[in-house]
Each structure stands twice: as structure tokens, then as C-alpha cells.
Amino acid sequence: MLHRPIAPLLRALLLATLAGMPPSPAAAWDAARAPRYPDADVRTLETRRLAIHGPGSTGDGSLFTVTLPDGTTAGLAQALAARQPLDPTLSRLAAVGPPLLRATGAGYQVQPDRTIRGPDGRRFVVRGVTFLDYLFVSLETRADYRFRAVPGVAVTGGGSSQSGFEPSVWGAPDGSDMRARIADWAAAGVNLLRVAVEPAVAYTGAANGYPAHWDMLDLIVAEANRLGLVVQWQVANDRAPAELNAAFLGQLRDRYWRSRNVWINTGNEPGCSAGGPSCTDAATWTARQTQYLQAVRGDVTGQPAGTRFTGPVVLNAPNYGEAVDTVAATLANATAFATDPNLILGVHTYRIGEATFGARLPGLQRAWIDAIGTHALFLDEVGLTNDGSVRDPALDPRADPARYPAAPAATLATAYGWTADLLAWARRLSRETAFSGVTVFSGSAYIPGLGVHDPNSLRRRDGSWTPFGQTVRDGWLSASADATRFAGGPFVNLLYNADLALDTRGFPGGPAAAGTGTYDGWISLDGATRIGRAADGTVTLAGATCGRRSAGAAPRSPARPW
């Protein structure tokens, strides 16, 4: 048979996990609020299948309340956060120590269940885009990576040349175009801007009417903060020496330690700029990322000892950001990582020739899906194509087809279908687990000298949506993308994965031996269980005893569809 926790059991479990709080009849959830909210919030520590369930269209659990033994009432999330460890099954979290940012309004903070809480006290799920591609990073070979040497671009007073993309990417020198673009993305549903930067930023002074690059970065942070957006600085020039990148991370720390909307990504796909062993070697990754993390978390220059950047730090895993499994033991046991209370894994995933996203899931399960709930984790980069080969003719209708050939219609259909399926899966995963969202590459990447956009662009330079952008807008960014249906109606079932739509193990349906994990969150408890989900969503259970109980309900009959 199959077994799932039900509401009374969950209530008792949650009360028991609050340290120093024995179960009490006075303790209760505010269940009366449930009918007002059409979707269910579920947070799961995947490694132990400990779930916290309840209503809340924001997915943050803040609508639960718990009456404490002294008679006071607290939000469930706050009560849990204030009492670590929750129980022996979560003892690993105790080694992390208390989160550095507790109070509502203080900043973004990883929670004990590995979700992320925003300054407003609500759960934060990333809906991000990469922003201002090419503006702050150039990849020409240099004798000294402090200073850009872009051909044809004059060197500024800081010793480095500008990137040459200031007119086309920044726009008006006074920043008015930039402010408008940030506002446009905010209006589209974006809540995080991922901006690539490199050490040369610190050496790029004002020139040609444009401000110094540091001043540009400050404007981005200020405007994003005004509109409630996160800015994630992504240190993106992997060709620069590690010591220089570490020093630049220290400069970012010193400049933005007070900015609650700033996250710092220590390196984009570390070691992978040239491919080869450094891209996949776990030991190389560990040494480099330890160095970078220590730079970000070091004392702020010019401030009292112990003054730190306490905002989220994003790490990309080895092998182009995807192979979390190869450093899982390091993340759990190495002091620099295991004791950092605000560390987030940013994984990268692209289609690599498979016909469907479902065909990719078994590999992703091993690489990083299994880490959800053990670590705070989100998709830090996903796009239509990782090599530029999937080009839609509607993207740049005037482009020379000989130089920029369009992909066959069948290839485009497969790529768009793969993306749509990934985003649907991500929506469900973020609703029902600690998975924390998606950043898409790229917001708008236009190359003036070529007169074309990167095939991953969501918008053209005139602001119109590309075909790929429409897929992402409708499947991830828009409010309507949050709608989830169950049995023809709004999803209100408090049981995790009630309609068996999540199947990250790729369970094919049929018999399941005792102890076998089938669909996400469902485990067979005897060898007589058979379970399946038809294409139309019909779920069938068969066995000696099968089905599951809601509060007070009898088991369903064997072999009957739901």
C-alpha cells in the first residue's frame, strides 16, 4: 500500500518538532483561512520526507499560526526558524548555526527548510533574467585582467577600456533608459536581475559621457531596490586569475554589504571557460570556491572587525554548473560551506539534443534534483540553446540567412516544447518542495556589429517579446503561470503531489516493491502495490489495500480510478 501523512498527523509532527514544545491541544493551525487561497504551500525536506503543508498563494507558509504554550501566537515559519534544530532528523542543520538575518525587512535569508525568505518575511521564489549581457564583461585575451583592452575602444582614466556596449546596452548616459528597462522587467514579473561583472569594472572610469562602471552598478542596485528586485552580481570572467577574482569579490563585499537586495555569485561555471579537467574536477572546484567564499564573507574593509556581507552567496557547481552530486560531500562537511547559513546553489541546465524534457529528468535527478531540501537551490541559468544553433527566423527577420541560418521547424518545436515542459515542472516543484525558482538566459542580448540578437533573448532591443520570450513569459513570469489545476479545479489538496504529476525519478507506473519510491513523495509499503497515472491524469491504485485516507475517510476500493 501507499502511505502519506494527513492533516492531524502533520499537526502533531510540527508541534513535536518545535524544540521545547510538547504537543498541546491548544496548538493549532489557522485552517479557517484555507478556502481563501486557491493553491497549497508545501515545503519538503526531501532527504527525510518531512513536509510542512498549508495554504498560501505566496508559497511561504506565513499563513500558518501556532499557539505557543505561554498562550502567545506566532507564525509557523517564524516559530520554526527560532528553534533550531527542529528534531533529530534535522540535526545537520544545527551545525549551520542561526541565520545571520532574522528580522523581517533585514534581507534575503535561507531558512531551515532550505527555502528562501525575502525582506517582507514571505517565501522568495526566483523569477530571474540575465541582464545587461556584454556591458560589464569582455572576453578578449589580456596581459593584465584588471584592464580591458577592447579593440577600438579608448582606455579610460581608470586604466581599463570600456566594453564598447555602453551605447547599445546602457542607452542614455544619464541612466534614464536603464531605469526604464528595469521597470519593464519588474512589470513583466521578474524579481531578480543576474548581471555579469568582472574585475575590470573597478578600473573603468567615466568616458564618452558615460559614468564609471562602479557608478553604473550603484544605479542598478538602487533602482532595483526601489522596485523590489534582487541584483545578483555574477563574477563572470573565468579567465582572470583566481587571486584577482577573489580581490574583486572583496570589493563587491565592501561596496554592497549594506544592500539587502544584493546577492553575489562567486563565479559563472567555474573552471569551464576553456573546458577540460578544471571544469569537472571536484578538488579544483573546492579549492577555488573556498577561496572565493572566504573573500565574500571576510571582514568589510574600514569597518569594525566582524562586519560582514551576510546576503546570499550563489555557487555554481562543477561541469557547467550542473553536477551538484560531485561536490555534495564537500558542501555537507567542509567548514566553509557547511557553516555558511546563507548559501544557495545555482544550477545550470540546457537541452542537449534530447527530444523531451522528460527524457532529461533521470540524469538531472542524480546531478542536482536530489539535493533539493538539503541545500537551498534554484535554476540559475536555463536557455533555449547552449551553443546558439537553435535560431528562430522570427527573432531577426532581416538577418542574413546564409550567416545566421534558421533552425528547422521541427527542431524549434522540440526546443520550445522542452522549455515549456521544464517551466511547468519548475512551477510545480517550487510549489511543492524547497526548489527556489528559475533565472532565464537572456533578457535581451543584441550585438550591434552583427545586427542580430542572441537566440536566447527573451526580448528584442525594441522591447518586443521574441518567440522564446513568449514561452518564458507565459510559462514562468506571468501571474497566470501560477495557476495549478487538480481534478478539473484549483489545486487545494494538502497532500504532497496529490495528482502524481511530479515524477522526477521517471517511475513508469506499475508494480512497486516494498520501500520503492514511485512518484515524488510516494513510497510503496508492500510488494502488492501497483500505481499508475494515465495521460489524461487518471490515477489508478491496485493492491491488497490501496489508496490513502483523508481525515476520517475510508480507503478507496482496489483497482478503482480516482
TrEMBL record:
Q: Name one Pfam family in it.
A: Cellulase
InterPro entries, from UniProt? GH, Glyco_hydro_5
Domain annotation Glycoside hydrolase family: ranges = 162-351
Instruction: Answer whether the UniProt record assigns the keyword Hydrolase to this protein.
Output: yes
Q: Which UniProt keywords apply?
A: Glycosidase, Hydrolase, Signal
**MF terms (GO), sorted A to Z:** hydrolase activity
- Signal peptide positions are 1-27
**Recorded family membership:** Belongs to the glycosyl hydrolase 5 (cellulase A) family.
**Protein name (record):** Glycoside hydrolase family 5 protein
The source organism is: Methylobacterium longum
Q: Which taxonomic lineage does the organism of this UniProt entry have?
A: Bacteria, Pseudomonadati, Pseudomonadota, Alphaproteobacteria, Hyphomicrobiales
